[in-house]
Amino acid sequence: ISGSPETGEASSGPTPAPRRADKPLPAICDPNHLLHRVVVLVFMCFLGFGSYFCFDNPASLQTQVIKDLDQNTAGFMQLYAWYSWPNVVLCFFGGFLLDRVFGIRLGTIIFSLFVCVGQVIFATGALVNRFWLCEVGRFVFGIGGESLAVAQNTYAVNWFKGKELNLVFGLQLSMARLGSTVNMNIMGWVYSKVADLVGSPGHFTLGISLMIAGVTCLFSLFCALVLGFLDKRAERILHKEEGKTGEVVKLTDVKDFPFPLWLIFIICVGYYVAIFPFIGLGQVFFIEKFNFSPAEARAVNSIVYIISAPASPVLGFLVDKTGRNVIWVLIAVVTTLAAHMMLAFTFWNPWIAMSVLGASYSLLACALWPMVAFVVPEHQLGTAYGFMQSIQNLGLALISMVAGTILDTRGYLLLEVFFCTCVCIALMAVVSLYFVDYLRGKRRTLHHALIFLPYFL
């Protein structure tokens, strides 16, 4: 990534007038100073807050959405499917748009606008009781949501380096999970307050509640504008180039992907389709099976995000220090399967299973995604990660619809069995990956032994 603040590389723009030596910039205004970069980091962390807050608005208002918009569960899950559909394609082209078309600053603002506009359309669809308009809103929201995360990471790499990056990425992830957690626990309260003001619950109350949630997207847009200004100012002062994602996507690389990478793809899809659709449907599950109040159901449903916020940086450090990513992925998948089985076949306190699920989810994210870099050469990394995100979103879109249909026709028990089956597919892929890795290691050992054998004869 070219042009970090510390390198001071020259840009092609006009050279600014030299500052007078006797009037240095205050620390908070100096792009080279840590204090200024901390200010940038604050805006950087809040850049994705609105997107993550509004992503799970349907989950936090599951009962209200189904009732007020007169939908079944299959229709409700379309709200998540429509978010994922555009990202089946944009995962390949988001980095290209940021690097070659818009630039990181304008691109971040444009994707933030997509998030804001999508949320407004979604809320308007509820206001006028037109579910198809809600679906359009979620589609537009999805166009901006995933690409905004790419822009956020690009800003991080452009402003920080080395060991700082691990902390920065951890803080960004924690803030994202904080947005999801706050949404889960506050939107039900917002809906009830709006209902008190309006006079009764209904689609109009739902629409106003979603409009209020959209304020967080406006705040993230404000952060995008401030970041663009600060980055442009730093470019002028430090003579650096505008940051780039560094992603190089060539679809022809897909035919050269090794077998272990395809196993990683299967793990990714099989695992994540048992997490996000479950959270999307979790609120009513905890109300019906465990007789929780709506507030308690929202709280236990958000525990996955609550645990993920502080656990991800810690587990990431642990995986980095110990290695053995395949073993950590295996542990994460097995414990996730155990958590789903507890929820499906026991009446144990669901806080136990959801806490296990939260820790497992964090561990898998830390161990699985870096494994891509172990099995493909560096020039194929952009394509590999893009393809991995693409099939993940494809899987989420399809499984969201399937999960809704299963729940409508068969109930929560069969739905949990379905999620357990998805995790079992991921488990078989992990075990296969372990043996492939083991056999390749033995083959390498045998190869080296044969090379040195003549020296011992």
Automatic annotation (TrEMBL):
InterPro entries for the chain: MFS, MFS_dom, MFS_trans_sf, MFSD1
One Pfam family here: MFS_1
Polar residues composition bias: residue spans: 1-14
Major location category of this protein: membrane
Membrane topology according to the record: Multi-pass membrane protein
TM regions (residue ranges): 34-55, 76-98, 104-128, 167-192, 204-230, 259-279, 299-319, 326-345, 351-375, 387-407, 413-436
Domain Major facilitator superfamily (MFS) profile: 34-440
GO molecular function: transmembrane transporter activity
Source species, domain of life: Eukaryota
The reaction(s) this protein catalyses: L-histidyl-L-alpha-amino acid(out) = L-histidyl-L-alpha-amino acid(in); L-alpha-aminoacyl-L-lysine(out) = L-alpha-aminoacyl-L-lysine(in); L-histidyl-glycine(out) = L-histidyl-glycine(in); L-alanyl-L-lysine(out) = L-alanyl-L-lysine(in)
Record keywords, A-Z: Lysosome, Membrane, Transmembrane, Transmembrane helix, Transport
PROSITE patterns found in the cross-reference section: MFS
Renumbered residue ranges of the record's region Disordered: 1-22
Gene Ontology CC entries for this record: lysosomal membrane
Cellular localization per UniProt: Lysosome membrane
Quaternary structure and interacting proteins, as annotated: Homodimer. Interacts with lysosomal protein GLMP (via lumenal domain); the interaction starts while both proteins are still in the endoplasmic reticulum and is required for stabilization of MFSD1 in lysosomes but has no direct effect on its targeting to lysosomes or transporter activity.
Family per record: Belongs to the major facilitator superfamily.
Purpose of the protein: Lysosomal dipeptide uniporter that selectively exports lysine, arginine or histidine-containing dipeptides with a net positive charge from the lysosome lumen into the cytosol. Could play a role in a specific type of protein O-glycosylation indirectly regulating macrophages migration and tissue invasion. Also essential for liver homeostasis.
Protein name: Lysosomal dipeptide transporter MFSD1
Organism from which the protein derives: Takifugu rubripes
Highest classification ranks of the organism: Eukaryota, Metazoa, Chordata, Craniata, Vertebrata
